[in-house]
Design brief:
The complex is a heterotrimer of chains A (about 100), B (about 150) and C (about 260). Chain B is of the alpha+beta class and about 150 residues long. Chain B is built from two helices and nine strands; from the N terminus they run ααβββββββββ. Chain B has a single domain, classed as Immunoglobulin-like (Sandwich), CATH 2.60.40. In chain B, the strands form two sheets. In chain B, strands 1, 3, 5, 6, 8 and 9 form a six-stranded mixed sheet that branches. In chain B, strands 2-4-7 form a three-stranded antiparallel sheet, with no helix packed on it. With about 260 residues, chain C is mainly alpha-helical. Chain C has a single domain, classed as Cytochrome c-like domain (Cytochrome Bc1 Complex, Chain D, domain 2, Orthogonal Bundle), CATH 1.10.760. The chains are: A mainly beta (about 100), B alpha+beta (about 150), C mainly alpha (about 260). Strand 5 of chain A pairs antiparallel with strand 6 of chain B, so a sheet runs across the interface.
Chain lengths: ~100, ~150, ~260
């Protein structure tokens, strides 16, 4: 599934940088019914983590009240050049990953 | 086939029972909100302040509402925000999201997009590194679309 | 006196439809973008926060994927969409010689898939058809709309215009009653727009997904309690063509974000 990641490609050491992520997911709440009355089972992303060169820097628990195609923005301090890794985990064994590189001067 | 009196009563009963049950099942109550908050906070006191909740007071569609929570904090190794928790009053479930931060976050601020089933109150609570809890709440009016389409 | 009054009333009634059906002057036309809240605009403005861009990304992947018994990708015939598809969506619906009538961009993709890729059809409003049409239409972002310029289309533009002016449904409302005569007012909490289709397929917050102009038109029809035309119906295509020609010269915004 597609994901859009916005991380500055370059930053100065010690800068506070914003990380924005958007990923494709229907986030079916589990509270809706079809026209014939059957409950549509819950299918959501339940957890998101971001690691910076292997260290977890941000984590979130998501609930059905998060809108479809979840968007998250958060901050971190640019410490060193390397890789930011993103992971979304959800119902029915859902797992997806993405990554972005950053050069810190 | 003509409907018998018994069948009619059965149908009438099933029709009247459903609307009574459904709204209860699909709306969090202040008690549920309180329980959800206490699950995170425990018995600790919750003070008002430090937390800012940026959310439009009147939204065009409750299905996708942009929201930003920020907390006033130096974000140093001994004084930082550990987590931010967001709750609502009237969705089917009281939880919206939990967000875990640390001193390397640099700034205690998260943004996301949420669903609000109805006009209601949203509460944001921050847990600081000294395990104190701070909160803010906002009331949001949700307008419904004038023309809603048939469910496919 | 009574006679004169009757004549005056008759004259007023006779001229009212013409006055009410006041088409919007070209320089007074406004995209739906100008009616939405700053938050919704911000969502559209930044490609990394616009959920419609997720579909554009999916469409880009589909563009290069070989499918069907011909084992061909869109890219095998059309090359790099960034150059070959520039401005294309701004001309749609376009005249299709073989059928002797206009077809939408989605229908063009479906025809290509059937005739050249020999692949299974993509249903209307399926994720893949929306992703492909979003990817193609995105290559026209900023291009002025030119749909309807082809003289072979004039009869169909006229058909679309008469459908736009025709009252329908239990509420007995024509498109023009809201979108020409009452834009900028509100229907319940929602602003009434001019119905300028500049950003389709759009990411609609209510839908929480991308959707076509046909889906939007069908939901308006349901709103006035009319029987909506089926997807791909010639009437719906004619209406789409008229709306695009009405927005002639306005820049494409795909994928737009709307409440």
């Amino acid at each position: 599934m597609a994901a859009l990641i916005n991380v500055p490609s370059k930053a100065k050491r010690g800068d506070i940088i914003e990380i924005r992520t958007l990923t494709s997911h229907i986030m079916e709440t589990g509270f809706r019914h079809t026209m014939d009355g059957a409950l549509v089972p819950r299918d959501i992303i339940t957890s998101f983590t971001c690691s910076y060169n292997g260290t977890e820097i941000f984590r979130a628990d998501l609930f059905p009240a998060i809108a479809a195609n979840p968007y998250l923005s958060f901050f971190t301090i640019a410490r060193e050049s390397g890789k930011l890794e993103f992971e979304w985990i959800g119902d029915n064994g859902y797992a997806s990953t993405a990554s972005a590189s950053i050069t810190v001067e | 086939m003509p409907t018998t009196r018994r069948q009619f009563l059965y149908l009438a009963a099933s029709v009247t029972v459903i609307p009574i049950v459904t709204p209860r099942a699909l709306e969090a109550t202040p008690a549920m909100l309180n329980t959800a908050i206490r699950n995170i906070v425990g018995e600790a006191p919750i003070r008002t302040g430090k937390v800012k909740l940026d959310i439009p007071p009147l939204v065009e569609n409750g299905n996708t509402v942009p929201m930003t929570v920020s907390v006033t904090s130096p974000m140093t190794a001994d004084d930082y925000v550990k987590s931010i928790h967001v709750f609502n009053e009237k969705n089917p479930q009281p939880n919206i999201g939990n967000f875990y931060l640390n001193p390397s976050s640099g700034r205690a601020q998260v943004s996301t997009r949420i669903r609000l089933a109805d006009t209601q109150r949203v509460v944001a609570i921050a847990r600081l590194s000294d395990d104190s809890f701070w909160q803010v709440s906002a009331d949001i009016v949700v307008t419904l679309a004038a023309c809603t389409e048939e469910v496919n | 006196m009574i006679w004169w009054r009757a004549i005056a009333v008759a004259a007023l009634v006779a001229t009212t439809p013409a006055l009410l059906a006041g088409e919007i002057p070209p320089d007074a036309r406004r995209s739906g973008y100008s009616f939405v809240s700053p938050d919704t605009r911000a969502m559209q403005d930044d490609d990394t926060s616009n959920p419609g861009m997720l579909f554009v990304l999916d469409g880009e992947a589909l563009w290069g994927k070989k499918v069907g018994s011909a084992d061909k990708a869109c890219a095998d015939c059309h090359g790099d969409a960034r150059s070959s598809m520039k401005g294309v969506a701004a001309r749609y619906p376009a005249f299709e010689k073989a059928l002797g009538r206009p077809i939408t961009l989605d229908q063009r993709i479906k025809l290509c898939r059937a005739n050249h890729q020999q692949a299974s059809p993509l249903p209307y409003e399926s994720r893949d058809i929306l992703a492909l049409s979003a990817f193609v239409a995105h290559q026209s972002r900023g291009f002025p709309i030119t749909a309807g310029d082809d003289p072979q289309l004039s009869a169909f533009v006229a058909q679309g215009r008469s459908l736009f002016m025709q009252r329908e449904g239990q509420l007995n409302l024509a498109c023009t009653n809201c979108h020409d005569d009452n834009f900028d007012k509100h229907l319940a909490g929602s602003p009434i727009t001019q119905a300028q289709p500049t950003g389709y397929p759009i990411y609609r917050l209510e839908w929480q997904t991308l959707g076509s102009l046909e889906r939007r038109l069908r939901s308006c029809m349901t709103g006035v309690r009319a029987q909506a035309y089926d997807y791909g119906a010639p009437e719906l295509v004619a209406l789409e063509l008229y709306l695009m020609s009405r927005a002639r010269g306005m820049p494409m915004e795909t994928p737009a974000v709307r409440p």
